[in-house]
Amino acid sequence: MAEPEERWRADAEARLAFLAKPPGALGTLEEWCVTLCVAQKTLRPTVSAAALVFVADHGCKKADSALSPYPASATQAIFRSLAAGVSCAAVLARSVGATLHVVDVGVDGDVSDVRDRDGIEVHHCKVLPGTSDIRREPAMSEEALDAALRVGQQQVQVVSCGATVICIGEVGIGNTTSAACLLAALTGSDAETVCGRGTGLDDAGLAHKIEVVRAALAHHNLPLTRNALRCVGGLEIAAMVGAYIAMSSTRAVAVVDGFISGVAALCAIQMQPSCRSRMIFATSLAEEPSRPGGGAILAEALGAKPALDMGLRLGECSAAVLALPLLSAAAALPTAATLDEAMALSPNAPAPAAAADDDDDDGFECLGSVTAEERAAEARLAA
């Protein structure tokens, strides 16, 4: 971590340590507050949120309908419902005030007629009309991978101009198969451990999915993260990887949305470790609750402590946006009173040894003096 980030982390932790509460009593909220302070380089962070949903089709699903109970055409239908503001994820994003961005990075079909509406922004960035069948050939070429990575990076660069928090999510029928392949390749795990039921596979469907993942892993040589992403990944997964990597050059943080978004986060960290410090994990990383093995492996690899455990597994940024009110609460923590300030409210409190200089703008809406660490941080911010 760069030295300036270390200073901001120390300043934020010092501020929270002096609040009127036992150390660490607000748990994950304190960790999130520090993450926001470090990213924004301030002890008064704000939450202005956007949700980026990358959408693409998968060749393995087009070649094998048994990989999901939903048809491949559902990808385009979900893209259109997100853009129309009527999908569950769109409703949730609107309910918490997050601007929704829907990005076609690889939908199989013409969706060029879909336009912005009602505060939802649609981005037509199609690289290919879906990937190839990963059991028989690489999912995409080097050129297509680079293009998908750029889509994610460019979206973050644009969106971060107005957002301090960016939720990262996806849509792609069949993409849990690609994500399971990537997780197995990156962690050395067995296909049976990392595979879940996706959108509702029965026992026979799950067994078939496990065999497909094993076949794809056996077909490709996957020693490097980038090659694994090219051979068994998805265009929307690659775009999410690009988005996470781009976070390091902004003052925004990323909210990881679940299993597939989490696998993309792991790819990004292995390609650029510095982006890990800009990630917040909204929800359990298990693909589905009855088979938590893949999620546990992923959480351990990421060093993640997800906040919500509500059985959320829709994707589409739905879990990430639900974490936004908690992030807003975390951002407000530095404005709380310190223990000394709280004690001063008691009628029996001793008079302070010296009054604070009223001309000093401490930058906080609390009652008394601030620490030397806070003043140093505020001075750096002003400079």
UniProtKB/TrEMBL annotation:
Keywords, in A-Z order: Cobalamin biosynthesis, Glycosyltransferase, Transferase
CDD domains found in the cross-reference section: DMB-PRT_CobT
Annotated InterPro entries: Nict_dMeBzImd_PRibTrfase, Nict_dMeBzImd_PRibTrfase_N, Nict_dMeBzImd_PRibTrfase_sf
EC number: 2.4.2.21
Reaction(s) the record says it catalyses: 5,6-dimethylbenzimidazole + nicotinate beta-D-ribonucleotide = alpha-ribazole 5'-phosphate + nicotinate + H(+)
Pathway entry: Nucleoside biosynthesis; alpha-ribazole biosynthesis; alpha-ribazole from 5,6-dimethylbenzimidazole: step 1/2
Keyword Transferase among UniProt keywords: yes
GO molecular function, one term: nicotinate-nucleotide-dimethylbenzimidazole phosphoribosyltransferase activity
Main EC class the enzyme belongs to: transferase
Family, similarity comment: Belongs to the CobT family.
Protein name: Nicotinate-nucleotide--dimethylbenzimidazole phosphoribosyltransferase
Organism: Pelagomonas calceolata
